């Protein structure tokens, strides 16, 4: 069996298909004719149970919507999506541009429900919160069910670019800012105890927390280094040495064994790292023909799917690409359209749908492949959530199995072949 065959598709049978658009949200206010900022959708997020959708719709406004949205066909089981206490959408007025959104608390899907350190739900589970990172450096935290403002977190000196709650079920919030710092907030403390991580050389663009809540990864402007931090000791671990200075996004795989980072110069590239050893494993590059015909094609975001088989790539020329690990063609992609200006994306936690936000304030919902992971992939995901690469390498098992468990069974380079240029060949 091919070592890269890790899933079977249940609803999309061919690679390179046009991404099925199943719905969109349109901004009330049109973009300004002189190109001034303010209307952008900088962040979109689903709640951990999939029952809410948050949209940073520009002009300092966040919309909280109950999922599924009216008019969107949604295939899921009754148990897979939480049920809100009411069916009301809510509008949160933040007063200034909203750059980051994060729901919390959240728990990794691979957490052991009997282990409190892995995020076991308590009998008195905390209310669902939404954190909003603002351009003035403030973080506003809202109660989702009521829409009430709980408190403001003050400390950052510039734009709060990214936010994420730790996936261990606690109310620990990580924030990254253009003031070149990361801050870790404990929202259960009355004084909102905060740890500040310093070391970035410029604006912090993106941060991600490993599924076991042990590490933070972050990237900043004009620096080829990926930063890894310990979330247990609040200290710097190591840098991953990238060849590109324009790193813009990073994301851990659901098992924590891979870290994807996105960069661009005149074309885009996504690298995949082992965060435990710092080793560069493989990379995905833009279509060669697109690279020759589109001289500047910025990448904006990368995000792993909930089952860890797919990676969403948001670029300037297409609003969405979905790539399956180990393949040379995208599973699905939106149409080639210069300056489509996608900015962000998020998968529904049960899969099947991805939402993307654009520079002109739109949100679009795309149907993505529903997959049945192979037994190999399920075993790898379950095992790698619990043990590090060093522990895998010490196991008394064949080297080929070690390669599979550590994602070293992939080629070191994948050149994406987009559907447009594939048809021209």
TrEMBL record:
Keywords: Repeat, Ubl conjugation pathway, WD repeat. SUPFAM superfamilies: SOCS box-like, WD40 repeat-like. InterPro entries: SOCS_box, SOCS_box-like_dom_sf, WD40/YVTN_repeat-like_dom_sf, WD40_PAC1, WD40_repeat_CS, WD40_repeat_dom_sf, WD40_rpt, WSB_SOCS-box_domain. Residues 372-411 form the SOCS box domain. Pathway: Protein modification; protein ubiquitination. GO terms for biological process: intracellular signal transduction; protein polyubiquitination. WD repeats lie at residues 153-195, 292-333, 347-368. It comes from the Eukaryota. Gene3D superfamilies: SOCS box (1.10.750.20), YVTN repeat-like/Quinoprotein amine dehydrogenase (2.130.10.10). Signal peptide: none annotated. This is SOCS box domain-containing protein. It comes from Aldrovandia affinis.
């Amino acid at each position: 069996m091919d070592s890269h065959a890790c899933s079977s598709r249940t609803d999309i049978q061919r690679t390179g298909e046009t991404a099925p658009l199943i719905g969109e949200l349109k901004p009330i206010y049109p973009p300004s004719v002189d190109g001034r900022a303010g209307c952008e959708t900088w962040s979109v997020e689903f709640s951990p149970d999939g029952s809410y959708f948050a949209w940073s719709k520009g002009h300092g406004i966040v919309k909280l919507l109950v999922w599924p949205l009216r008019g969107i066909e949604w295939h899921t089981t009754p148990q897979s999506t939480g049920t809100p206490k009411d069916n009301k959408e809510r509008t949160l007025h933040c007063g200034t541009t909203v750059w980051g959104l994060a729901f919390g608390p959240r728990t990794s899907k691979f957490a052991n429900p009997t282990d409190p350190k892995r995020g076991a739900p308590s009998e008195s589970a905390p209310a669902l919160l939404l954190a909003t990172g603002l351009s003035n450096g403030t973080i506003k935290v809202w109660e989702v069910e009521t829409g009430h403002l709980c408190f403001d977190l003050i400390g950052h000196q510039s734009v709060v670019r990214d936010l994420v709650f730790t996936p261990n079920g606690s109310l620990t919030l990580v924030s990254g800012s253009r003031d070149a710092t990361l801050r870790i907030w404990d929202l259960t403390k009355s004084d909102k105890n905060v740890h500040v991580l310093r070391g970035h050389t410029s604006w912090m663009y993106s941060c991600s927390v490993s599924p076991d809540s042990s590490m933070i990864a972050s990237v900043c402007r004009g620096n080829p280094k990926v930063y890894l931090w310990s979330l247990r000791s609040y200290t710097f671990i190591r840098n991953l040495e990238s060849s590109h200075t324009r790193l813009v996004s990073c994301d851990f795989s659901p098992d924590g064994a891979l870290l994807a980072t996105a960069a661009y110069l005149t074309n885009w590239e996504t690298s995949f790292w082992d965060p435990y050893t710092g080793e560069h494993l493989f990379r995905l590059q833009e279509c060669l023909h697109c690279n020759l015909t589109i001289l500047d094609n910025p990448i904006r975001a990368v995000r792993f799917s909930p089952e860890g088989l797919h990676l969403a790539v948001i670029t300037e020329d297409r609003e969405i690409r979905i790539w399956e690990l180990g393949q040379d063609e995208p599973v699905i992609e939106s149409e080639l359209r210069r300056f489509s200006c996608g900015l962000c994306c998020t998968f529904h936690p049960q899969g099947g749908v991805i939402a993307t936000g654009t520079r002109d304030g739109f949100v679009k919902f795309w149907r993505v492949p529903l997959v049945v992971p192979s037994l190999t992939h399920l075993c790898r995901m379950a095992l790698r959530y619990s043990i590090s690469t060093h522990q895998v390498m010490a196991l008394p098992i064949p080297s080929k199995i070690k390669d599979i468990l550590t994602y070293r069974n992939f080629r070191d380079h994948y050149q994406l072949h987009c559907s447009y240029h594939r048809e021209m060949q």
